[in-house]
Amino acid sequence: xxxxxxxxxxxxxxxxxxxxxxxxxxxxxxxxxxxxxxxxxxxxxxxxxxxxxxxxxxxxxxxxxxxxxxxxxxxxxxxxxxxxxxxxxxxxxxxxxxxxxxxxxxxxxxxxxxxxxxxxxxxxxxxxxxxxxxxxxxxxxxxxxxxxxxxxxxxxxxxxxxxxxxxxxxxxxxxxxxxxxxxxxxxxxxxxxxxxxxxxxxxxxxxxxxxxxxxxxxxxxxxxxxxxxxxxxxxxxxxxxxxxxxxxxxxxxxxxxxxxxxxxxxxxxxxxxxxxxxxxxxxxxxxxxxxxxxxxxxxxxxxxxxxx
Length: 308
Hints:
Distance between the termini: 44 Å
Number of strands: 2
Number of domains: 3
Radius of gyration: 20 Å
Order of helices and strands: HEEHHHHHHHHHHHHHHH
Number of helices: 16
Largest sheet: 2 strands, antiparallel
Strand order of the largest sheet: 1-2
């Protein structure tokens, strides 16, 4: 708990800087200070920031406002970073933050590789802070996190899990990309032609309900953390994110809508009559079968029908 307001002070300092610097290096300041304060090191925060902030760039300015009607054309466009930050600054003042998160989480999650996963990681830290206390600087931080994620939104090849492997076994089976001479984007681009990548994804045991999904995510985080020890010599910085990204998702889930009542309320907020009817049906299906995909179908419909 941030008893003396250090986190809010740190956020206010950092929000004058951009999410990136020196090209596209991620600004780790908001994530680091939230971790330091939560772990009892608030007294060191401002001194640490004094040194770290010398490296950062100014907050980028927008050029063309993004609206709720044309956001898809700007998704994943880093040149619109300033526009995305302005868009989410408005969102966080006009709507409850959980509603904003519930709307954008399914839209952004397919692009989880954004900014070397720093979009989702910064979001996870921001949500963690908001669950402890809601105020202006923390709301602004979530807006900047989501804006950064949207601007750097990046997909990777995906195959749905359908096997029996636990997360540690599936992770161990991931093949190395053949050319490790450049940065993360160069390595991610190689996944398309990497035969072992879809094999490892398919081998993973799928979750059958929300509780099991959380357990699998926790197991994946643990596996990635311990995987770092014998493998970090190959890429000491990049491999960090294999553990911190799933942990960020895990920390965000308590704020995401996952109960039937929350899902139906979201359908009502969406307003489309087809979404509402589908939600009504899917809640009955979920009540009879317990299948979490019935609730996920409603969330999926809200995104797809937005696109029509």
